[in-house]
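Table S2 (text version). Query chain:
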Amino acid sequence: MALISIDGNVLRKMMICGANNLTRHSNELDALNVFPVPDGDTGINMSHTVQAAAKEAQKLNSPNVHEIAKAASNGALRGARGNSGVILSQLFRGFAKGLEGKSVASASDLGNALVESSKMAYRAVMKPKEGTILTISRALGEYAKEFKEKDIELGLAEIIKGGNHVLSQTPNMLPALKQAGVVDSGGKGLMYFVEGALAGLSATDDVTVESSQASGEGNKQAAQAAFSTDDIKFVYCTEFLIDTPQAISQSKEEDFTKYLTTLGDSIVVVSDDNVIKVHVHTNNPGLALERALKLGALSNIKIDNQKLQHTNAIEFSQTQMPEKDLAFVTVAAGSGFTALFKDLGADYVIEGGQTMNPSAEDIAQAVSRVNSKKVVVLPNNKNIILAAEQAVHLVKDKEVFVVPTRSIPQGVACLINYMDSQELSEYIAGIGEIIDNVHSGQVTYAVRDTVINERPISQGDILCIYDGDIVSTGKDIQEASKELLEYMIKTADGELISIYYGEEATKEMADELAEYIREANTEIEVEVYGGGQPLYYYVFSIE
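Corresponding structure-token output:
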């Protein structure tokens, strides 16, 4: 019998099965990254994002398709990690918009939602590039138009067939994919999600979100081990949803947020139509709930004692700090970089970077913790910029500006060049020039054989990267590093070179490189720091 419509219960299963299928293939997606570096993280980022979406859908026991789609959209928004994750969150958002006002969805409704999903994602990217997840999303929408009058199960199977065909063509759209001999990892991840959703369409048993096996847990546990419960000022992590009779006014929302500031910190209040998502750390969760009841009905209430959770959850230190005119939140991977940023005046350092991109909510919560109404966020990684920009919309009552730093050295320069007397507008106006004057190099290793820009690369080769491009390879770490430093000196007009050595290098090795540069270039100043970064033997900067 033809399946002509689905309700929220079926859509919930589809969301969960889609997320589970993508998560199972996250390691494969990481391996599809064009750059053969060991920190490919498309699969990790997409997995975290869809899991966040599916968990929100799983919580909501509703037969209404729009309510389920909306819950998934809210979850994806908060859990989005990396560029691929942020784009995914916009796909969920557009899908929910396409189902607005629907209690059940026909094949036609689902087709329209897929079209709206793609449109929303394209609008979110300033310079859309074909051959990526965007192309696949548009293809799904176009095939949905063609088959949307059919049986939903048969139609979705046809849509998947068409999407996979377009995915196979992505190497012809992006030369980098063709050289590497791979399809687009983001597009492949989207197809895994849709294929899982098809399986969920006919699932008869209850399904639940499967745990991610993504890497990065070791680093999180190490960070947790260094955290003291004595630092927790407000014990109860309180989260809940407020279902309002109608969308509340901005003034009411601001009044509620202001009240929460009298009860605790780490406040995030996000409203979307008739639903308000609330997060607050407080010693009086009852007062927060009592005030919220004046706005509407409460659901999804979760109150956790952070001190009791210490051994198995990651929480942030709630240290007291004086209020500042301008605060800085920055991202860093490596104990040395974390210490350096703090020494330079960063108010909050988010542990993360490659393979462990912080989510939009991670960044929003960090911003909410600093004691300032004006906050500058330094992502220090091109794959975190979109999540940081999305986090801005999750924070209330603070002016947040994201400086698009693409490397840790650029973040370091932004902090060094800030003066306490500067107004935010004055500082931001000159930040672009500061970033442009900092060029970065990285030394790592290849995780697979490939070809990049017609350069053959073998697994295990030392890779030398300058401003995002592989410029040379080698077999010896030190010799390859010297070659990269020489290239940077010839290419950039700089007076200062900074050498940051990572976990797999030593200070003696870094000092050897510094002495090599000093002997050959007496006019260039060289500084050596312990960055402690994983995966990269060295990070260099020249300015």
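Notes on Table S2: The radius of gyration is 24 Å. The chain has four domains: 5-208, 229-305, 327-433, 439-542.
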